[in-house]
Amino acid sequence: MTSNWFKESCLDIDSDFQQTISHVLLQKGLVQSKCQTTAMRFIIEVIVFWTLVQGIGACANVKIVSRSAWGAAAPKSVSNLRLPVSLVFIHHTETPACQTLVSCKTRVQSIQRDHMVSKGWNDIGYSFLVAGDGTIYEGRGWNRVGAHTEGYNQRGIAFSFIGSYSGSKPPTAALTAVKKMIQCGISLKKVASRYRLYGHRDVNPTSCPGNALYREIKTWPHYSRTKP
Ligand SMILES: [Zn+2]
Fold first, then answer.
1. What region holds the Peptidoglycan recognition protein family domain (predicted)?
2. How far is the CA of 209 from the centre of ligand 1 (A)?
């Protein structure tokens, strides 16, 4: 069965795409025959398919509310990150928490106003914000330099839990959502697979992200005790 399939596949190099690949591989001496080309093409297709499945899988279970969906104001200016970033920072917003789309839209809009008007920043500071129900709100997103962690904004992205988490940690749905987002970021090549995770207080003089949340993230896989 296998040998028949292989024999037929070897004879079946007829599309332009296959012909081109076959020609290039033969020329570069990577293969000696069209049969080997077919085998190699099959392996490449399996790898591409698997990578796609992994990518879709990692991002499939995160619910992201886009900037336009929460009514973001336009940024005053934008600069792009060099991707993938190797640092991930965890914050809390130190505002009241929120659980629903309606209340979280208002909350995220008010955080953006505070950052842009009171603090004079170009946009909402964080890369992403996470609500108590595990919904993610897009801040600056994966690609743009944020204003979240002084001295490290060019090298990292930040997830901020909406609420204050000194006394108790965020709901499980929110914690799970951020873990999934980091995996999603890795599959999208926005975050390095060997990233290092920090709490805001690890690098700046602040109590952020609150004692309870800080204790929690110190148990997460990529938490690093070495300064970035
Ligand atoms: Zn912070």
1. 62-204
2. 6
